[in-house]
Protein: Branched-chain-amino-acid aminotransferase
Organism: Psychroflexus halocasei
Amino acid sequence: MSQLNSLLNITKTKKSRLEEVDFDNLQFGKNYADHMMYCDYIDGEWQKPVIAPYGPMSFEPSVKVFHYGQAVFEGMKAFKDDHDDVWLFRPEDNLNRINISSKRMAIPEFPKEYFMESLKTLMQLDKDWVKKGQGNSLYIRPFAIATEPGVSASESNQYRFMIITCPAKAYYSKPVKVLIAQDYSRSADGGVGYAKAAGNYGAQFYPTKLAKEKGLDQIIWTDANTHQYMEEAGTMNIFFRINDKLLTAPTNDRILDGITRRSIIQLAKDEGLDVEIDRVEVKRIIDAAKAGELKEIFGAGTAATIVAVEGFEYDDTYYDLPEMKDSFGMHFKKRLQDIQYNRAEDPHNWRFKI
Ligand SMILES: *Cc1c(COP(=O)(O)O)cnc(C)c1O
């Protein structure tokens, strides 16, 4: 393997765990592929990245990530086409974004060369973990954590950047019921909502648990100041369709700049669809629902590509959405997946071949 490159230190696994995995009954996040990458930041520099068998690591209990949550992550996927070629989707956008997230969390940026070489090598080593077929993928989780021991509340001077991967089937494919947030908030002006910072997600679990107790699956987050504008759904960006117009909120420091969102907007514009990128008032959506003009709501993110919303609760009233035959959500899901699985033209060069 050493001929692959000299940028990385590579230790291959002695025995693949592939045989142990029941790919017909995959539970997302339970099985990890044979190899992982880690790279330490010490003395002001990223050291040589290491590819090694996936496995536990040990840290002192005082390392800063455990106490202050100085951590960021990404989510991306690899797809296998019918000719057994493996493809990534806009991987440099994920690198750019983790560096934007890192900057906000005072974590040093990770070099592009290390990121891309590591990804390519991991995908080559673990290509048998990327299964062919619609809905199958290898989920890729890059992340960075503060690893300096010491409980003083200040930025760390040591970090570990890692990439782990796990096989995935279509994530949540069934339509979801959502709660439009009126009490809790996900992010605020000047905060970290635009960053994939670990703490953003931990803080959503409790309000989401309360929503689940009411029989809803997810929360549509609204702006923290007034709760009058729609922002995001769980860990997805959110789109609304009123008649034949597609609406989504503009990104800002409270809203994550999703790659799926960006891709859908581009495809919609390519098709000449009417797309409005502006603040989406809750009242406008409620009024449209009452008038029968609200045709669909869908979430967009790498994990599930697109998730249809079947209904939502607001002010203790539940609104059902109609079942759409010609759904925009399903149309864009298919268009995106056709590009991701190398079944269609890729006019914007989003695919990246391993
Ligand atoms: C990751 C994420 C998204 C979706 O981003 P993609 O790049 O499309 O995967 C949307 N909102 C939040 C809060 C996220 O964390």
Q: What stands out?
A: The chain has a mean pLDDT of 95. Residues 75, 196, 232, 235-237, 256, 258-261, 301-302 surround pyridoxal-5'-phosphate (CB under 6 Å).
